[in-house]
């Protein structure tokens, strides 16, 4: 089990019908309210002290916590919020007509990055096929997903999502697992490079500042008590 992420299986479809992307990821509270896919549940989950990201797969939810948060403290509240929504029948993700890009909300560009594209070269087509059929299922089982970001100078550019993004061994996953398989089957592939979102970096920095403010306030409260 990933120390920073937990996967929940609510036994119902998570993503809305017709969504071409296989995931939606929320990295800050603002993103849960903004178009194109606001999520009341994600808003509640990110309001839990210590929760830093919410990832929706086709039929699972992955919750990521801050490094200093304890699952023993936050898991019961997270489980309760998810159970409440599932039992009520409330929609987990809603659609907004106005589609604007929002820092912190990622639906993979609304289009599955592994989908067939007639403009792809033969090598890119083979890379996508291998990622889709052999690599993505294993990553989704672990509570995450993978984005294909390009193929440049022999390097496959990939972005890990959900639990795999925060896993301490994500680099090992890329190097030993994905890279090894791609290089074995496709001789043009010389390696794999992990891509990190600017939004993700910004979100992590904002969350760190927020956590620091909370610690300072707790310190002041303790000193005046």
Key attributes of the depicted protein:
alpha+beta, 225 residues, 3-stranded mixed sheet
| Shape annotation | globular
Helix content: 40-55%
Radius of gyration: 19 Å
Query: Which percent band covers the strand fraction?
Result: 15-25%
**Total of DSSP H or I helical runs spanning 4+ residues:** 6
Number of beta strands: 8
In this structure, how is the largest beta sheet organized?
5 strands, antiparallel
Low-confidence stretches: none
Oligomer: single chain
**SS class:** alpha+beta
Account of the protein in words:
With about 220 residues, this protein is an alpha+beta fold. Helices cover about 40% and strands about 20% of the residues. The protein contains six helices and eight strands; from the N terminus they run ββαββαβαββααβα. Strands 1-4-3-2-5 form a five-stranded antiparallel β-sheet. The mean pLDDT is about 80.
Task: Explain briefly what this protein structure is.
With 225 residues, this protein is α+β, with helices and mostly antiparallel strands. 41% of the residues lie in helices and 18% in strands.
Please specify the SSE layout and strand pairing.
Blueprint: E1 5-8, E2 24-26, H1 40-46, E3 51-56, E4 61-65, H2 71-88, E5 105-106, H3 122-141, E6 144-152, E7 155-161, H4 162-166, H5 170-185, E8 191-194, H6 198-224
Parallel strand pairs: 7-8
Antiparallel strand pairs: 1-4, 2-3, 2-5, 3-4, 6-7
